[in-house]
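Protocol check, entry for the methods section draft. Step 1: assemble the input record (protein sequence plus ligand SMILES). Step 2: submit for complex structure prediction. Step 3: store the structure tokens unaltered in the notebook. Ligand used here: NAP. Step 1 record:
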Amino acid sequence: MTAATISAWSVSRYGAPERLVPVTRPMPEPGPTEVLIRVRASAVTRADGMMRAGRPLFARPFLGFRRPRHDLSGTGLSGEVIAVGQNVRRFAVGDAVFGEAGMNFGANATHICLDEAGTLMKKPDGLSYEEAAVMCDGPLTSYHFLHAVARLQPGERLLVLAGAGSLGSAAIQIAAAAGAEVTASCSTRNVATVGALGAGRVIDYTRRDPLDGPETYDVIFDTIGVASFAKARARLAEGGRYLCPVLTLGLLGSVLRSRVGDGPRALFSAAGLQPPEILRGHLDRLLDMAAAGALTPVLDRVYPLSDLVEAHRHVESGHKRGNVVVV
Ligand SMILES: NC(=O)c1ccc[n+]([C@@H]2O[C@H](COP(=O)([O-])OP(=O)(O)OC[C@H]3O[C@@H](n4cnc5c(N)ncnc54)[C@H](OP(=O)(O)O)[C@@H]3O)[C@@H](O)[C@H]2O)c1
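Step 3, stored output:
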């Protein structure tokens, strides 16, 4: 009898998408508090690309200095529970679930074991496996930034830079549902999509710089780090907050300097490093929004798992619309 195996993708050395190699591994067995999931869909994100490339270099202490500490790729996923450890309480065989493998990686695979105490949720019927697989990228990160970091209030004016990306497309919907006045930037081809997500005003960045106008905002969410705090602060009202999820030394300096005094603040956070119980609380709110029709994750391309290299190439174009998944 042959032992059961799973298909996955490995990156043994940092580099371009072609470094990804398909591998087979023994079927994992769930530990006492783990569930074994048959993966139906998994996300391919900008962060996955950065981990594959080992960039930025200052992330290497977490990822591994010379080569990835964990060689399998992929973080966000959805699927069905097919086995549970003896102490598992929150899940049962047959549950549809979605979640995040975090720094253990391995979501771009046919099967994965995850601890029930991690960022793992039951998938409602109203959310497809593809949509659920990306919930922990744009939706969860944008929820964390807008509600936990910026404490966005109803009626506040928000500018979302890169409104057509994974974080941007979720941020527009989350902020509109929270009663904010949303303006977003994107290129010409995405103007209609971004408007339909709930942006009251859309600025085509190919025609004018969204930070050059006379408008001021309470919050500017620079979802891809396309601007800088130095440039954005002129457009921030009193008590204004500049949020950026892309950590650079420049942003770190702005975060530290803006802590002094009463002026606008620059803010960074790593959503994935928050305690899982906090993230599960955020996901509960996002599922409420999805059930109420206020949030639909935007899907761009869906590839077969065997085309992961192609999916990474598309994500790396910097122009995906919303999210990319492999199934
Ligand atoms: N800190 C955290 O916790 C955290 C968590 C998750 C992700 N991240 C990071 O967040 C970043 C954003 O990820 P993402 O997945 O949202 O990015 P993304 O989806 O890859 O962004 C692509 C989008 O950017 C738009 N874009 C490109 N250039 C633009 C410009 N000059 N102005 C406005 N829009 C522009 C494109 O729209 P057009 O085609 O219309 O140009 C495209 O839709 C990544 O760097 C990721 O690593 C951080």
